[in-house]
Amino acid sequence: MPQFTVHTLDTAPAASVPLLQQTLNAWGFIPHLHATLAESPIALGAYDTLFGATTTQGTLDAKEQQVAFQAVNVLHGCEYCTAGHTFLSRAAQVPEDVISALREGAPIQGHPRYEALRQFTETVVRERGRAGDDAVDHFLAVGFTRAQVLEVITIVACKTISNYTNHLTHTPHETFMADPMLKWVAPQRV
Question: Which Pfam families match (predicted)?
């Protein structure tokens, strides 16, 4: 198995150092995902740009963002990101029943807007963007906008970078991810 470095500010390629410093300033620590992505300044920059744009400039609210992020994480079977976004979902005050349904890959009961977002996001991923007019029409009929159709694609792109990186590099989990309330094992590994 190839070994990937979990970089620090001292070991990262020069072009990644300012990006890692920004992450440290924003988060108070450098997540192992970012430290691993630092091997490629392009990959780290792309991830940071997409994640930052989604969370600061998007029109989906913080809870909706987490629903879409988590739908992708679970569908991709990414244990690192599912644990991390469970933490972020709680910070965004996503209802616990919604968090549980997402982690189980189950329909979200009692929250039709979140369920429509989960379904649409999963369809976009499964169908590789060819979700079809009916899926888009249903998403819009629930009250989402055309801009939010494209925001979902941005979230899918962002999570594809992180999920695939974690799969290929075996990104070590953060210490806090061992908490039984956060830890998640992909169904395909059970």
Answer: CMD
Nearest-angstrom CA–CA distance, 158 and 121: 13
Name the residue with tokens 């977002």: 117
On whether both 46 and 15 belong to a single domain, the answer is yes
In-domain check, residue 2:
no
Using alpha carbons only, what angle is made at residue 62 by residues 108 and 18, rounded to the nearest 5 degrees? 130
How many angstroms separate the CA atoms of 15 and 28, rounded? Answer: 20
Q: Output the pTM of the full model.
A: 0.94
Q: How far is CA 9 from CA 26, 42, 47, 103, in A?
A: 15, 16, 18, 33
Q: Does residue 1 lie within any of the structural domains?
A: no
Extended beta strands in the chain, E state: none
Same domain for 48 and 119, yes or no, is no
Q: 70-110 pLDDT, tens per residue?
A: 999 999 999 999 999 999 999 999 999 999 999 999 999 99
Phi, psi at 110, each rounded to 5°: 80, 5
Domain count, the chain: 2
